[in-house]
């Protein structure tokens, strides 16, 4: 395969280099760089340029650059290509670093920036790039950025390189001179590609025949830019223009939608120290929750209904917002699709049920807080509020997932459709509301445990435990201290063992399925022996 046959894709991202704040030890934060690279790949980036800006190259040692190249390559292996920024103002130093990159096998190509500071003539630029390219077999992309290097590489020089040097595969053209772009596109060989070097003029350059973009904005709006370059590259100019306007005019909105897709992972990339707060905050909430149990739910129980009503309505509205954008997702109500999945992959479908069962886990807790209302009110609440709102939310998550497909093998923690459909201004309120709804749902389970334990004690199935009545009016509202603290200890142990909801999901699915099986068997025994069914 020749250098120009290597496919780097239409969306290439020039990844920023993360540094440690205090500079202690190693200056480059390699761990954060790896996670950032994985998120870029998960958001549509096809190739990552590492140390590819005029600002980072002078600030990194050769060892740091090679370590950074290796870190990113290992992080996205099989999911995205890597281009190493090896160019600077010195031809000799650029050759040495390029040869080191090829020898170490840490990149699929190199990026060579127009020399800065020494302001060479056009012939000097030609010889500089040609000499470096001829020292390696790696694909080379030249980078013209006159706003930073204060030296523009003329179209004639670019065309000479395109014709004379086979492994110079294309140019990252960051000049705003569209006449120069047109001259390059009109005169270059058909296998020589031009990527826009400015996020603001991707569409105009691609509409003229450019191939794609080397982007910085893709850190934030990667999926939007990927959709735009794919549509324009496929000849759908109208869609490309629409997405271009969205990108330019509504960039802040798009940034919002992208950033809240993986809130936990995104926050960790911005400041990985935030990750360490998840378990402590959860611990505080749990301790507070169980300490309050001895006071009962009589006083605060009146707010449970309004909070849960708000919760379900918000779920429905968020889902509806996505369904409106892609109504085709409603076709999922056709059971033929489910049967097709079962037929194509029976074992995989069976394993998938471990996650599917999580959507009906609440049914096992119905008896705890609303079973005494009777079948009529339960059906009314279910069919008028809970059922339609949940369906809309699940459909909305599906629509979002179709528009934002995950990359296989990358961090599951970085892919959260539930929060992906939440607008950024509502993210914090949504987390607060979700926490409140979770506490209320947990209260139902805790109340259920107390109620069952009380009955078991009366039937001599459990040893006698202290039972405290927390209400003067509701005889069934009780508090059992021993079980309360035992449950708190179990919850805290679970938090520190699993740490994330994704890690807990599989174990939770097994536990819930086991509970369903046990209660179903007990119901069957009662139905046969006592009810004579």
Account of the 3D structure:
- The protein is α/β, with parallel strands linked by helices and about 525 residues long.
- The protein starts with 10 loop residues before the first strand and ends with a helix.
- The chain is elongated and about 95 Å long.
- The protein is built from 22 helices and 10 strands.
- It folds into 2 domains: about 260 residues, TIM Barrel, CATH 3.20.20.70; about 260 residues, no CATH class.
- Strands 1-2-3-4-5-6-7-8 form an 8-stranded parallel beta barrel, surrounded by 7 helices.
Would you spell out the secondary-structure blueprint of this structure?
Blueprint: E1 11-15, H1 30-42, E2 47-50, H2 62-76, E3 81-85, H3 91-104, E4 109-113, H4 122-133, E5 140-144, H5 146-149, H6 155-164, E6 168-173, H7 178-187, E7 193-196, H8 202-207, E8 212-215, H9 218-233, H10 237-249, H11 251-259, H12 263-270, H13 278-291, H14 304-325, H15 335-344, H16 346-356, H17 366-369, H18 375-403, H19 417-420, H20 427-458, E9 468-469, E10 478-479, H21 481-498, H22 501-529
* Beta-strand percent range: 5-15%
For the largest sheet, list the strands in their spatial order.
1-2-3-4-5-6-7-8
Number of helices: 22
Segments where pLDDT lies below 50 for 5+ residues? 250-274
- N- and C-termini, Cα separation: 73 Å
Assigned CATH architecture of the largest domain: Alpha-Beta Barrel
Total beta-strand segments: 10
What number of structural domains do the residues give? Answer: 2
Summarize the amount of helix as a percent range.
Answer: 55-70%
The major beta sheet can be summarized as: 8 strands, parallel, barrel
Tell me the CATH topology of the largest domain: TIM Barrel
């Amino acid at each position: 395969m020749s250098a120009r046959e290597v496919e780097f894709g239409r969306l290439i991202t020039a990844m920023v280099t993360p540094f440690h704040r205090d500079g202690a030890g190693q200056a480059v934060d390699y761990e954060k760089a790896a996670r950032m690279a994985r998120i870029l790949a998960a958001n549509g980036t096809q190739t990552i340029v590492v140390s590819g800006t005029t600002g980072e190259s002078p600030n990194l040692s050769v060892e740091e650059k090679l370590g950074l190249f290796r870190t990113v390559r290992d992080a996205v292996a099989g999911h995205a290509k890597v281009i190493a920024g090896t160019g600077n103002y010195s031809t000799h130093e650029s050759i040495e670093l390029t040869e080191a990159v090829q020898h170490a096998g840490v990149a699929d190509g190199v990026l060579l920036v127009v020399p800065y500071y020494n302001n060479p003539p056009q012939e000097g630029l030609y010889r500089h790039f040609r000499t470096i390219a001829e020292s390696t077999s790696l694909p080379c992309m030249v980078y013209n950025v006159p706003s930073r290097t204060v030296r523009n590489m003329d179209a004639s020089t670019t065309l000479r390189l395109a014709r004379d040097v086979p492994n110079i595969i294309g140019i990252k053209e960051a000049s705003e001179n569209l006449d120069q772009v047109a001259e390059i596109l009109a005169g270059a060989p058909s296998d020589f590609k031009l990527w826009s070097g400015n996020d603001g003029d991707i569409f105009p350059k691609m509409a003229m025949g450019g191939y794609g973009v080397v982007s910085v904005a893709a850190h934030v709006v990667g999926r939007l830019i990927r959709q735009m370059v794919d549509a324009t590259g496929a000849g759908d100019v109208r869609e490309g223009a629409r997405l271009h306007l969205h990108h330019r005019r509504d960039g802040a909105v798009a940034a919002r939608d992208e950033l809240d897709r993986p809130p936990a992972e995104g926050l960790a990339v911005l400041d990985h120290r935030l990750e360490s707060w998840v378990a402590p905050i959860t611990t505080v909430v749990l301790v507070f929750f169980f300490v309050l149990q001895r006071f009962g739910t009589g006083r605060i129980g009146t707010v449970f209904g309004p909070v849960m009503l708000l919760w379900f309505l918000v779920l429905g509205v968020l889902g509806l917002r996505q369904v409106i954008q892609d109504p085709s997702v409603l076709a999922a109500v056709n059971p033929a699709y489910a049967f097709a999945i079962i037929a194509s992959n029976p074992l995989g479908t069976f394993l998938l049920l471990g996650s599917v069962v999580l959507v009906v886990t609440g049914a096992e807790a119905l008896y705890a807080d609303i079973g005494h209302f009777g079948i009529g009110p339960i059906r009314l609440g279910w069919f008028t509020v809970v059922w339609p709102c949940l369906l809309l939310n699940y459909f909305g998550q599906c629509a979002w997932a179709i528009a934002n497909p995950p990359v296989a093998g990358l961090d599951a923690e970085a892919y959260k459709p539930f929060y992906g459909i939440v607008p950024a201004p509502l993210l914090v309120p949504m987390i607060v509301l979700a926490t409140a709804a979770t506490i209320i749902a947990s209260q139902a389970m805790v109340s259920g445990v107390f109620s069952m334990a009380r009955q078991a004690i009366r039937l001599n199935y459990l040893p006698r435990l202290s039972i405290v009545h927390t209400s003067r009016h509701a005889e069934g509202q009780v508090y059992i201290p021993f079980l309360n603290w035992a449950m708190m200890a179990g919850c805290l142990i679970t938090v520190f063992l699993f740490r994330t909801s994704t890690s807990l999901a599989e174990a939770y699915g097994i536990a819930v399925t086991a509970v369903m099986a046990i209660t179903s068997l007990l119901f069957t025994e009662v139905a046969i022996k006592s009810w004579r069914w």
